[in-house]
Design brief:
It contains 24 helices and no strands. The protein has 518 residues and is mainly α.
Amino acid sequence: MKIDSKSKSDNDFKMFNVHSKDENNPEQKKNLNGKATFYLIYCLTVAVIGSAFQVGWNIGIFNTPFDVIKDFFNATHFKREGRPISDAKFDLLWSITNGLLPLGAAFGGLMSGFVGDKFGRKNGMLLTNILVIICFILNMISKFFSLYETLIVARFICGLFCGLFTGIVPLYLTEVAPQNLRGLAGSLNQLILVFGIFVTNVFGIREIFGTEQKWTFLVGVMIIIALSHLGMIFAVESPKYLYIKKHDKNKAFQALFRLRNHDTNLVDNEIRELEKERIEMLSREQVRWHDVFFKPSLRHPLIIAVCIHIAQQFSGINAVVFYSTRIFSKIGLEGQWPLYATILLGLVQVIMTLTCTVIIEKAGRKSLLLIGMVGLCIASFGIGLSRLFSKSYAWLDYATVLFAVIYTVFFAIGPGAIPWVITAEMFKSDARAKAGSVAVFVNWFSAFIVTVSFQFIEAAIGDYSFILFGCLLIFFSLFMLLFVPETKHKTVDEIINEFEHQTFFLFNNKTKSEIVNF
């Protein structure tokens, strides 16, 4: 007798739900831990290459060929008006061009929750590539028709798809991975993003694509990356999304069965966790947008997530990147060597982000975040003080370089990747996309503020800007110590239960309602 696959999967699913197990059994909880199967690695890889690498590539696409882009603006202006563009006008146009990416990403991030819930994590990523194609066309029009206006508009479109990717991808990564690999999977987003920036900077040097004739090849690579994202066709949708948002138990079971390499015990336990979450979700009202801001059980973790993302951007990392080439020039490097040194600094960031990815499941999220913030604080004061006194003591120029490297190391080890991981882990499936989109909006809008305002801050207070960042980092470090929970190897229920016993400062045995209507 022939049994079709759908009937078989139905029977398998029913079989996995007839077992009676104690949900508090330590052995059952242990069985939520899985392995990095080949198919899981495939799904994670195609997801981050087509999205996180795309974001990193487009963030760094105009960094190293800056002089070439400036010449393009100048030549275009000369054709129109018969005179070179003034420095003031170019600075204004360039500030707008750079600022539109994080601004567009902020709005793209705000839409990511809707797109991720409406179309799914997988299809949401694939559909975002439509914006990649539009951005590519606008960039090509800009080059071949001498229109820098379309280049500026393309930067905003670029921001939109960067925001969408950074909102949807962390959801997918943490939802397809087993509990013990969530942190590793979530940190892949930041690892591949910084790797994309590094590769773009390398390809943007004069010897490769950083020339007037070849810089459009840098833009063209985004289409190749988008094509590689077609590999998502062969990846599964997030089992959590299928089970809880779409109420498709059979497809969720099939997806888990493939991701866990037919590990029936693990799939059984994960299905039970999903069913438990689904029942709880059905027993309460559906989460709406305003609930994320006004419902205490959602507002508390949202405040923490938002503050972590603000801390990431206001840590001063963009200022260090801005200063890096100037710092290396100061110690005597000439020609292209300051640029090469800056690229090596990017390599350090890639290596340390990889280190974070490897140790995150052992060290924990909060520990790495706190260590990173304290390290950033020390390095920021180090950069500021060494720059202030370098006129009197020339050897302090080398100390500035050392502190810049230390700064990059500590940013990559924690604050670079951890915010995306923690944000995805603190919310249940019905609220995760909405809360995540708010966090992404705040992250990118903070980046927009820093990008646009830093040149004015630097002009007003000079090297004291790093002292300012150091003071902010003291506050951020205290916040991480007092408010941020550890989410390592915990279910969403366990994390939420900790919030139920958290006072204004630390965790205790009182319920939140007994303390304050937060």
